[in-house]
Design brief:
Helix content is about 40%, strand content about 15%. The chain has about 240 residues and is an alpha/beta fold. The chain has a seven-stranded parallel beta sheet with strand order 3-2-1-4-5-6-7, with helices on both faces. Pfam families: adh_short. Belongs to the short-chain dehydrogenases/reductases (SDR) family.
């Protein structure tokens, strides 16, 4: 996937990692970047084309795909977190996590798949999380949704291969954005993570690990729960 002269559509592009994707795409030579947001008036990157889209509203998603018929790269970045706890979190919060991260990502991918196909194949980037692979009780709703989104991403990769569309998953831990503002501990620079993800797209990588935490957790996957959850033995959590 060549980023130069590409036409991209980024969801959740009015702030945080989404805004950094828009900036990084222009830096990489993209010809046009559609900046999708619930409130397109909040899109701040000069040169971006604001588009109203709510990924949980299927009519809105369909309208966005019609408004951007020249897209060659879709970045499914929009997301939210309810911080729903596994034991006492509101079940409606769990549903909202799945509606956003799983159904919303799937809706965008389905809507833009024929657009990408008509324009030569292109690529899809799904912003996942290190919590796709490991869970924590205080954000169990988010983690469960991201795990399901990872599964959807893998299925999309297989389903879209025939039309020449590559699918890249980005796994990353906490970022220095509004979403993680209340979380203690170190956080990665969203600009650097966006650039790394786009480098992965250009290199044809199926997955990009955006930070050391993600690399550490992925390395523990083959060893099973004992390695993923050392806190069960009195150790320190991996995330």
């Amino acid at each position: 996937m060549k980023l130069e002269e590409s036409v991209a559509f980024v969801t959740g592009a009015n702030r945080g990692l989404g805004e950094q994707f828009v900036r990084a795409l222009f830096d990489a030579g993209a010809a046009k970047v559609y900046a999708g947001a619930r409130d397109p008036g909040k899109v701040a990157v000069p040169g971006a084309v604001p588009v109203a889209v709510d990924i949980t509203d299927h009519d809105s998603v369909a309208a966005a795909s019609r408004a951007a018929p020249d897209v060659t790269l879709l970045v499914n970045n929009a997301g939210s977190t309810t911080r729903a706890h596994i034991l006492d979190g509101d079940l409606e919060s769990f549903r909202r996590e799945f509606e956003t991260h799983v159904v919303g990502t799937l809706a965008m991918s389905r809507a833009f798949a024929p657009v990408l196909g008509r324009n030569g194949g292109g690529a899809v980037v799904n912003v996942l999380s290190v919590l796709s692979w490991v869970s924590i009780p205080v954000s169990a709703g988010y983690a469960a949704a991201k795990a399901a989104e990872w599964s959807v991403t893998n299925a999309l990769r297989l389903a879209l291969a025939g039309q020449g569309t590559q699918v890249t998953a980005l796994h990353v831990s906490y970022l220095a954005t509004d979403m993680a503002a209340g979380v203690p501990g170190p956080k990665s620079d969203p600009g650097a993570v966006a650039r790394a993800a786009l480098d992965g797209v250009a290199a044809g990588l199926p997955e990009v690990l955006g930070d050391d935490v993600s690399r550490r957790v992925q390395a523990a996957l083959p060893e099973g729960p004992a390695a993923l959850y050392p806190q069960l033995r009195g150790g320190q959590s991996l995330v």
